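Notes from the 1:1 (GR / supervisor)

We went over the backlog. Supervisor wanted to see one worked example end to end before approving the batch request, so GR pasted a single chain during the call. The sequence is below; no edits were made to it. Supervisor asked that the structure be written out right there so they could see what the output format looks like.
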Amino acid sequence: MKVKFILPALEEAKSPYWRPLKYSLFPPLGLATLASFCGESDEVRIVDEHVEELDLEDKPDLVVIQSYITNAYRAYAIADNYRARGIKVVLGGLHATSMPAEVRKHADIVLYGLGEKNFPEFLADFRKKQALAVYEQGDVSLDELPLPRRDLFKSERYLVPNSMVFSRGCPHKCSFCYVSSFYREGKSYYTYKIDRILKEIDSMPGKHLYFLDDNIFADKKLAREIFRQMRGMNKVFQGAVTVGAVLADDTIELAYEAGFRSAFIGFESINAGNLLAVNKWSNLGQNYNEAIKKLDQLGIMINGSFIFGLDEDTLDVFDRTTEWAISRGITTATNHILTPYPGTALFAKMEHEKRILTKNWSLYDTRHLVFQHPVISQKQMEEGYKRAYDTFYKWGNIIKSSTEHETLKMKLKHLSYAGGWKKFEPVWNFIIKNEFLAKTRIALEKTLR
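Structure output shown during the call:
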């Protein structure tokens, strides 16, 4: 059987060789996980439209499409094309789970939630020509799962081909988080067993590794065991953590000893009232400055995540937040305009209050304002968002922020990492198209060390 897995592009109108750098960071790990359930005799392909052209004239027996909100319309167009030619189409992912009625119009089969259980069930039914129209997530177990089919990736086209997860979901319930729409009922956090985690780490060549978990410290007992086992592996890795986890105990020291060199932290807002309003409990009452200092003293860089457009924000939020980040030595900033994703508590609240301005899903990209804010207009919000990025990544501010670090090594890492990430972004597309990523990865690993 010929099975084709597709990750549609962010924007249909763009060339598959155009995209922001972040869309060339990681290969589609979720699709590779589903592909691992196919049989040895199956002819399996993964096509990531962000890094390669998609042939819409081929004739696979089955097409499996991963949907998220900003690629939804492109996913529908691809699905409609194949269905019009009598080819069966499966749609799954975040958008399929949060907007099932809409997605069913474009798919023969819809998978809800995690696919680790329902995809193999569907596949068995499909082979028997008894496939259902809808498969619920059901009771998921991550035990005894095969490793993702990384052999199906075009690894040379990604900056960080060695990405993995050892958990799925998040135990926290922030009202704005897309993850909350994915786990519709019951349990929202799952982990792999330690032996499988170590096996997967060992299966990937090279030194650089990125954990894509929503929070690598969420199961602290498991995290500490992973870090103990990773000591001596000579890996450098990145991942997401919370402020509270950094300050709680010596787990962050164990992580550093294992090779942890860059932390993604969702600060979200420097206004406690905003954090309370969106249930960001993990940040409330935490000392941001102390956490930043602790990471800096260890030698761990910070990618800070910030949200603009929370209800207590006023027009000065962009400049205040940016200055705060610069003055704390945050190495890179990832900014977002608050986006009420369908299926989240935030979306339900805003829809009830009649504040949703559009349901054009392509605008739900955290760069556009899609709801009515109490005091900030759409034009002001989007201009402020752009200004915050431009200000943070001015050379003068990159240099100024680097001086906040205590050691010369961290000052130099800040300059090279922050400068390389944004100031040279226009050259990344050239590097990727010409397959120079191997040398770039080596440079990245040296920077992280």
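Supervisor's comment: The chain has two domains: 2-135, 159-448.
Batch request approved.
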